Amino acid sequence: MTDDPLRVLCVDDEPGLADLVAAYLERDDGFDCETTVETDPNAALERIRAEAFDCVVTDYDMPARTGVELLASARETHPELPFLLFSATEPDEIAAEMVRVGVTDYVSKNGGSEAYTTLIRRVGHAMDGDEERSDGFDAGGVSLDGVCTVAPDGTFEYVCEEYGELYGYDPEDLVGERWQRLHPDEAVEHIRTDVLPAVMEGDRWTGRSTGLRADGSTFPESKMVSTTSDGRLLISVSERGGSGARADD
């Protein structure tokens, strides 16, 4: 980061909420930040094209265009701009969209003041330039094609077609099942002890693990795991090339 204030564009069609996000960001002691507020996503797109911003925080469900559509258009001129969704829309409803366009991070509005604390932390991570947290769901240059959401009780809520196919299942066969079903014992232990504690602290984890297919075979996978403020997990995954990869120690 430079010594200049970081510029964050806050986009929400409800003016009070956009102003509240801006106020939380500006008064945080973790980084020097100045904010700009827009309630019209089309006007926000014009500002992104005309001005220099370090990060965009946007709602999803807005008239004229959604937050994901705003990102898709902004990526045409600003492919590396960190873009966070701060939304009440459930992640399982828009997970595939987020992965497709490369949303940097997602934070649920459904968490009271804790949601704003999480948002501040995620904005800070995005603007720090940490590869594991600022490259979007295409983590480390690896296309993460399958996406799912996991409920706080550890069961799958949403599984996209590509995610199910990777493990040899129809998506509907996995909904309601526990996430451990898709990993051998050693990978389950790795995820429990190394991945989930970091994620539940508000960080986003990217790395390697081992997948378990329906036929009993295993494969090396690249995985991204983040959490919403209400305890859901958002997971994106792809099969790694090559052989001999294993879960991180």
Task: Describe the protein.
With 249 residues, this protein is α/β, with parallel strands linked by helices. The C terminus is likely disordered. Helix 2 packs parallel to helix 3. The strands form two sheets. Strands 2-1-3-4-5 form a five-stranded parallel β-sheet, sandwiched between helices. Strands 7-6-10-9-8 form a five-stranded antiparallel β-sheet, with helices on both faces. The chain contains nine helices and ten strands.
Task: Give a brief description.
The protein is α/β, with parallel strands linked by helices. The protein is 36% helix and 24% strand.
Q: Can you lay out the helices and strands and say which pair or pack?
A:
Elements: E1 6-11, H1 15-27, E2 33-38, H2 41-50, E3 55-58, H3 67-74, E4 83-87, H4 91-101, E5 105-108, H5 113-128, H6 131-134, E6 146-150, E7 156-159, H7 161-167, H8 171-174, H9 185-200, E8 205-212, E9 218-227, E10 233-239
Helix pairs in contact: 2-3
